[in-house]
Amino acid sequence: GQQVMQIPQYQHVQEGEDFTTYCNSSTTLSNIQWYKQRPGGHPVFLIQLVKSGEVKKQKRLTFQFGEAKKNSSLHITATQTTDVGTYFCAGPEDSNYQLIWGAGTKLIIKP
Amino acid sequence: EAQVTQNPRYLITVTGKKLTVTCSQNMNHEYMSWYRQDPGLGLRQIYYSMNVEVTDKGDVPEGYKVSRKEKRNFPLILESPSPNQTSLYFCASRFRGRYTFGSGTRLTVV
Questions:
Q1: Average pLDDT, stretch A33-47?
Q2: Which is deepest, A44, B19, B75, B99, by most CB within 10 Å?
Q3: Which residues does A63 contact at the CB level (< 8 Å), separation at least 6?
Q4: Residue B59, φ and ψ in degrees, nearest 5
Q5: CB-CB: which of A42, A88, A98 is closest to B45?
């Protein structure tokens, strides 16, 4: 069946370093969404990308949707402690439009 | 404030004792869903509902039941909980593809 793979599972960075998480779908997606889950919290919608090659920015966060609409990335420039959490990508399944979720990438700031 | 409300936040129960986790949304969304989250496995869908009286199985429905008698409420029922249902549960509603999640229910079955 359709799968969305997300890597890495964890990323340890020093505060101020950059962070990137990647999503790869086994099939072409009509759109891709990104969510952030703070420690002890619930997933919160960040953004939805729809167009091939789309790039969107939210302050220090840059989201990209690949030309083939099968991959996506989230890049955070100069991480801050407020960025800590797990970032999930998700795309709709072809057959029933239910979201298929990546396993998430946990951003950890080294002390 | 637009929100999805789940109760309880934490629950410890014993094997076989029926329980219900409630979920309510105040946004008049037609679509609602239940997920469980386990370390390393991400979010897995249990059941979803496209509208009142319309429910369907997700990826991991075994051992769970749901009902959707009215638009705002979507309770999750565990008729006979087992330890492998120990998990973090999230209810969500959806509008124009965007999901809004409840704060979660951490369930422990001993």
A1: 97
A2: B99
A3: A34, A46, A47, A49, A54, A55, A56, A57, A72, A73, A74, A75
A4: -85, -25
A5: A98
Spell out which residues of chain B touch residue A41, defining contact as CB-CB under 8 Å. 103-104
Of the residues B9, B32, B43, the best mutation for testing chain A's interface (the one with the most A CB atoms within 10 Å of its CB) is B43
Token reading at A107: 């951003």
Could you tell me which chain B residue has the CA closest to the CA of A34?
A: B98
Q: B58-63: list long-range contacts, CB under 8 Å, 24+ apart.
A: B58/A98, B58/B33, B58/B34, B60/B36
Query: Quick one: how far is CA A7 from the chain centroid?
Result: 9
Calculate the dihedral angle through the C-alpha atoms of B2, A55, A36, B72, rounding to the nearest 10 degrees: 30
Q: What pLDDT band is residue A94 in, cutting at 50, 70 and 90?
A: confident
| Amino acid B10: pLDDT | 98
CA-based nearest residue to B3, from B36, B31, B29: B29
> B50-72 burial by CB neighbour count: b if 16+ within 10 A, else e?
beeeebeebebbeebebebeebb
Mean pLDDT in order along chain B per 10 residues (110 residues): 94 97 97 94 94 95 98 98 98 94 98
